[in-house]
Structure formats: structure tokens, C-alpha cells
Amino acid sequence: MGVVNVTPDSFSDGGEWFEPSAAIAHGRELLAQGADVLDVGGESTRPGAQRPSVEEELRRVLPVIEALAGEGAVLSVDTMRAAVAAQALRAGAAIVNDVSGGLADEEMAAVVAQSGAPFVVMHWRGHSAAMQSRAVYDDVVADVCAELTARARDLTAAGIEADHLVLDPGFGFAKLAHHNWTLLRHLDRVVDLGHPVLVGTSRKTFLGRLGVPDGEPPRPPAQRDAATAATSVHAARLGAWGVRVHHVPTTLDALLATAAIDRAPDAGIDRAPGAGIPTAATSTTDGG
Ligand code: PMM
Questions:
Q1: Distance of CA 200 from the midpoint of ligand 1 (Å)
Q2: CB of 30 closer than 6 angstroms to any ligand 1 atom
Q3: CA–CA distance, 47 with 49 (Å, rounded to integer)
């Protein structure tokens, strides 16, 4: 899943794709690079970010969704607002991705239930201003699983088909760095809840702190793509259904390399493997 942030202030790529024409072009580029789904959002969830009005959020996302859906792209709309989800679905979005898992807007569950669209339910403990003070857990894996299970139960009671729910542990949302790492290590426990799992570690601050001495600022977001690829490969290995990333080529390459390893013949069997693995005929310049 490639990210198209139509915002002036996202932490990862703030402002770069704020004009609809730039966002549309960026969406096309991500598709050409191999994204299966584009996640279009008009509200930054960066700590301290001002929320746009509903009208402003619609103004940002609708032209982008209309244009890209018209070209056949599969789109999710990244929104916490039922009114935005409803209009985005009418404009051609196929999936609703709500970082609040339906908690921020009590109309959301009904809109999604009525549409029959898949719903990404992220683990969430409040809007960005409050969330880091809520990063308190007895056992982050057990607590996140319990809160996601409760959400899934309430959303199915509100009429959303259980098999339309995708769960997301919410990396960076009400989580300290060690919470994010523990959740990644034990992601199989989230997968075991029985729903497809989406993982969004892309360019988040906990990745930017790798190798940086305490007290120094994290490396900038665009220098976190290798760590994004590593965490995304790990998530795929543990059974994630999807990974949400800003820079598609790095993560896709890492996933392709891992898949090629998985498909390689057993030791002692010396024959060309199945499709997708370079053979001597396709890679000769460095010896294949
Ligand atoms: N993270 C962000 C925004 N939307 N949606 C899901 N499902 N999961 C996430 O982890 C997630 C998200 C924040 O990152 P960005 O605004 O820079 O894309």
C-alpha cells in the first residue's frame, strides 16, 4: 500500500503532494513502482497537528480519489470522518482506513457497514495531542490485541461483516519506541486474531532513532526507508496482509528478495527455480 498524503504538514512527506495535481502524479508513480493499493489521506496525524475542517479534508482528497479511481487504481481513504469516508467511497475509493478504528466518529461504523467496503481498524487511544500520554500498557501485545478484539466485536455488532475488517496495531500511535519494537516482534499474536493485518511502520520516528546516540535528533524521515523495508519484510514474514509505505521501491525490492529466498530450491537440488528468481540467463553481468 503506497501512501498519498494530500496534506501540508505530515511528518513523513509534509507538503510534497499537497496540490491535487502533484498528489495524482505521485499516486501514478507509486502504482508504476508496484503498489497494489493507494492510501489517500487529507489529515495529518502528526502530534500537535491542527485538524482540517470537513470541507477542507474533502477538498483535499476528493479530486485525487476521483482521478486515480477513474484510472482504475484501488484506493483506500485514510480518514477518521464518516462524511469524508462516505463521499470518498462514492468518488471511487474501495477501502476505508480509519486510524481511530471508528472511535473518532460515531457515524463511521454505519457508513462502512452500509457500503460493504473493507475497513482498516487501527489501534488508537485518542487524537494526536493526547496520544503519547496514553502510551501506558501492562503488556503492550496483550493490551493491543484485547483492544483490537473489542473494536472488532463492536464493529461487527454495528453491522460490518467480520471478514471485512483489517486490523492494524497502530505503530507510533500511543506507543513509545519499545512498544513498537515489542509489537513488531510479536506481530504473529495480532495475526492470530484471525483478520488480515496491515502494518504501517513507514518512516516513523522509532526507525529514525536506530544507530543515533541518545540525545541527538532522529534522522530525517526520507532516511528511514531501509528500516521501513526491514520492518515490513519482518511483518510479511509473520503473516501481515499488507504494509503501508511511503517509498514503494525499497520495500518492494526487499519483499521480492525475501520471496525469492523462500522459493529457492532445497540444498542439493540444482535446477532453475520458478518464476521471479533471476537465473544465469537473466543476470550475467556480475556472474548471475
Ligand atoms: N500511519 C499514519 C497514517 N495512517 N493508517 C494506518 N492504517 N496505519 C498507520 O500506521 C498509519 C495510517 C501516519 O503516517 P503518515 O501520515 O506519514 O502517512
A1: 6
A2: no
A3: 6
- Annotation marks residue 175 as catalytic: no
d(CA 21, CA 240): 32
For ligand 1, atom 13: residue with the closest CA: 45
Domains of the chain: 2-201 (3.20.20.20)
pTM: 0.93
244 catalytic residue (yes or no): yes
Decide: 76 in ligand 1 pocket, CB within 6 A.
no
Q: Which of 125, 175, 204, 224 is catalytic?
A: 204
pLDDT at 129: 80
Q: Is the pLDDT of residue 81 over 80?
A: yes
Sequential DSSP letters for the chain:
-EEEE--S--TTTTTTT-SHHHHHHHHHHHHHTT-S-EEEE-S--STTPPPPPHHHHHHHHHHHHHHHHHTT--EEEE-S-HHHHHHHHHHT--EEEETTTT-S-TTHHHHHHHHT--EEEE---S-HHHHGGG---SSHHHHHHHHHHHHHHHHHHTT--GGGEEEE--TTSS--HHHHHHHHHTHHHHHTTSS-BEE--TT-HHHHTTTPPTTSPPPPGGGGHHHHHHHHHHHHHTT-SEE-BS-HHHHHHHHHHHHHHHHSPPTT--S--STTS--TTT--TT--
Q: Does ligand 1 lie within 6 Å of residue 231's CB atom?
A: no
Share of the chain above pLDDT 90, in %: 82
CA–centroid distance, residue 99 to ligand 1 (Å) = 7
Amino acid at site 250: T
Q: What is the pLDDT of residue 131?
A: 80
Q: How far apart are the first and last CA of the chain?
A: 31
pLDDT for position 130: 80
Assess whether the C-beta atom of 245 lies below 6 angstroms from ligand 1: no
